[in-house]
Amino acid sequence: MTDAPQQTHKKKKIDWTPYILLTPAFLLVGCIIIYPILNAIYTSFFYYNMTDYKNIHFVGLQNYIDVWSDAAFLESLGNTVKWVVITVSFQFVLGLGLALLLNQPFHGRGLIRSVCFIPWVTPSVVIALIWSWIYNGNFGILNILLRWLGILSRNVAWLSDASVVLYAEIATMVWQGLPFFTIMILASIQTVPYDLYEAADVEGAGRWKKFQCITWPHILPTVVTTILLRIIWVFNNVDVLYLMSGGGPGYSSMTLSLNAYIKAQKSLNFGYGATIAVYGTIVILIFMSIYLKAANKLKGTES
Amino acid sequence: MKQKKHVLTFYFPLTVLVAFIVLPYVWTLVTSLKTTNELYSTQVTFLPRMPSLENYRVLLQETDFLYSVGRSFLVGVTTSFLAMAVAVLAGYAISRYRFAGRSVILHGVLLLYMFPSVLFLTPLYKVFNALHLIGSNLALVIAYCTFTIPFGIWLLTSYIDEIPRELDEAAMIDGASVFQVVTKVLFPLLCPGLVATGTYIFINSWNEYLYAVMFTTSQNRTMPVMLASLVGQYDIRWDLISAGAVLALLPTVILFMLVQKQLISGLASGSVKG
Q1: Second CATH level (architecture) for the domain A16-302
Q2: Which residues of B are less than 8 Å from A94 in CB distance?
Q3: Model-level pTM?
Q4: Distance separating alpha carbons of residues A274 and A265, to the nearest angstrom
Q5: pLDDT tens-digit series, residues B200-213
Q6: Do A284 and B86 touch (CB under 8 A)?
Q7: How many CB pairs under 8 A join A and B?
Q8: Which of A146, A277, B107, B219 is within CB 3.0–4.6 Å of A260 for a Cys-Cys bond?
């Protein structure tokens, strides 16, 4: 609505329509999102174990202190940073590259485009299972291909070798998330006014110059939001890691989210699991604020 | 853009990236057509020696795969309708009205989306347990609303923003109520957006595993839980898994292909404003 009707509303009385329309959303969000968040924070101050139900009691900050002497938690902190930073960086770079390639006209482009988007809608269970089969130490196609190419001399057990497991899973996650970047960037590139490129051609600008001066500033807002969404999704991911290696061997592929999940789902230690989830939320909030500050600076210098 | 395409800067990187994306699917399909003997033989074959649909037959006839698919379908459809009904009203309010707290809500939606799903796990479990909902479809529908509603509001707001405001203002002047504006004016124009959002929500519910593991019992699990259960403690049924993976993918891929264009334009316009 324009300013004029808004002012008449103010003069008369508040228009309740938007609030009425928002009521179902408020109610549901309150019950199934806000309440659980508060309840999780509350639970984190308790010794709350479903296998020891009679013994639930308030322990104050004990869980929050205990995590710092928990090897799984400590190792998961570093793993989480690696997992999020490496995965999202590769997803972005490869996704951008693919978007630029798919933006050029060629035969069968429509089909190739659609096919490239499929990993994004593939069930995470399917992703975890087909990649586990690819990485299989005895019958996996990856070992066969690498041996055939002469890169490996003997089989590697990708998912049970502590030094490679996290990177193998990062590769899977890159595969899963790269299409989303391509989709978003491609959609944004297509809204660049074509005459800008023509003008650049007249001035004799090269490809890189055109990308740098026309394409990049145009897609930047989309890139910023997409990276933001991806950081959230990758950080929150549990199922791929859980199904591929369960955080192991040892804690070599344990992340914060996975750790919180395992504590709650497998050990039924709700209090401790909630504590790790709260720490996880704090970490992602810090991640976000750093990222948004940096992104705003970048946007500022571009414009 | 009009330059000639070079092998090194165009065809080579494109082929590598497309191969990286496509080959895992090809390998899964190939695996699903192999016999168990061929699957675990020391001599690995790139193409099945004797393609057979035996794995699919076993999966469909001797396991509860089909039953779990039905359940996933039911939960997905219910979640879509519930989440969209709520999201379309909220989206309309956010898009069309300027009211106190609007920007807080607009940003809050994205903030809610940020909370790790593991945070909701134990509180929801406690509630469902107390209400004896563990194992019911309702528990899954509610759990899926935690991530589909914020996303649905975000997406539908961007679709409604695309519809010119003058249209509903004209209807209002003609004396139409808010309800009439929504059903008679907006709804037909919003249909493609609703279909895209609904499909996206359905795909997300169909694919969900984390909550499904926690809130189902062994008698009424959903498709992803059933598939994951083929990874037994001692024995992993790669033959059945690959057949199941192919079947699980079919509906999502078909649905996605149908709404692709609409969904992408919604996501793209939402991302610029968000």
Answers
A1: Orthogonal Bundle (1.10)
A2: 17
A3: 0.87
A4: 11
A5: 899 999 999 989 98
A6: no
A7: 260
A8: A277
